[in-house]
Design a protein that fits this description.
Order of helices and strands: EHEEHEHHHHHHEHHHHEH
Largest sheet: 6 strands, parallel
CATH superfamily of the largest domain: P-loop containing nucleotide triphosphate hydrolases
Number of helices: 13
Radius of gyration: 20 Å
Number of domains: 2
Distance between the termini: 20 Å
CATH class of the largest domain: Alpha Beta
Length: 318
């Protein structure tokens, strides 16, 4: 029996295109929940098509938090996310409502639930040298990080220069892998008992979903979205443009890729990202896996049963 001092917290994770948002919305409607985004791109304003945000018209009146909170050129990290999300979870629980964290950014979720050590302070001189190295030899930072800290390299995209620089900065200054630093002195989330549901649809079907969604994003105007961001003053080297889909779209607008090439490269990169996500999540024994998509009728039934039994240990949520 859970302590009456604890609040229930539901987490929905899985690879990109597995239906996390759909499942989270279904469970929020059924169990009186509010959704807290855990996707590192959906925090940015005006990045809608390429991040697959649930449109306002489809949110069924359910509050969605930590979406559209920052300009696209803002640097934001896992520690920043945890600092915003933790008090928000307590606010939702105090209403009282069921907080539902949904998203696929594993490092953000770790920061939220398990906490992260602060790590060494920024070294601007080192950061400039690392940035210069990457400019001279693209991909070199990821290769160096893969040697120094394979677990951290596995979760960072080779094009995410900001994260690569920070990870290498920690490795070099602390003289131990960043993955070890993050576990030292971390403070786990307090006041909640957590149920984590993971979506793990068959790989071949997931790849089909990814390819279909990628085509749909470009057909829905992803290139126009990127063009508008540039026209509104977002610089081409903004962090948002390092992400999958946006990087390829920017290349089209700059003339280095055709649209068919961009679609193909985006789908390939998304499949690779989904593989990295599952490698990350499978390390966590706390996850209750459902081998299907979030909108599958069996998934809706199984997840509702899991959540119903979980909430039965707590005071009922209005």
């Amino acid at each position: 029996m859970a302590s009456s001092r604890l609040h229930p917290l539901l987490v929905i994770i899985g690879p990109t295109a597995s239906g996390k948002s759909t499942l989270a919305l279904h469970l929020a409607i059924r169990f009186g929940g509010e959704i807290v985004n855990c996707d590192s791109l959906q925090i940015y304003q005006r990045l809608d098509i390429g991040t697959a945000k649930t449109p306002q018209s489809e949110r069924a009146g359910i509050p969605h938090h930590l979406i559209d909170i920052l300009p696209p050129d803002t640097v934001f990290n896992a520690g920043d996310y945890a600092a915003l999300a933790r008090p928000l979870l307590h606010e939702i629980a105090a209403r009282p409502r069921l907080p539902i964290v949904a998203g696929g950014t594993g490092f953000y979720l770790r920061a939220l639930l398990d906490g992260l050590a602060a790590g060494p302070v920024r070294d601007e001189s080192l950061r400039l040298r690392l940035a210069a190295r990457e400019s001279r030899r693209p991909g070199s930072l990821h290769r160096v990080l893969s040697r120094l800290d394979p677990p951290t390299a596995a979760r960072i995209h080779p094009n995410d220069t900001h994260k690569l620089i920070r990870a290498l900065e920690i490795c070099l200054r602390a003289r131990v892998p960043a993955s070890e630093v993050f576990l030292q002195g971390s403070q786990p989330l307090e006041g909640f008992e957590v149920l984590t549901i993971g979506l793990d649809p068959p790989r071949h079907l997931l790849h089909q979903h990814i390819e279909a969604r990628t085509r749909a994003m470009f057909e829905a105007g992803l290139l126009d979205e990127v063009r508008n961001l540039l026209n509104q003053g977002v610089p081409a080297d903004a962090k948002a443009f390092e992400s999958i889909g946006y990087k390829e779209s920017l290349a089209v607008l700059q003339g280095s890729l055709s649209v068919p090439e961009a679609v193909e490269l985006t789908a390939i990169a998304t499949r690779q990202y989904a593989k990295r996500q599952m490698t990350w999540f499978r390390r966590d024994p706390r996850i209750c896996w459902i081998p299907a998509f979030g909108d599958n009728p069996d998934t809706l039934v199984k997840s509702s049963d899991l959540v119903g039994r979980f909430l039965g240990k707590f005071t009922s949520i209005d």
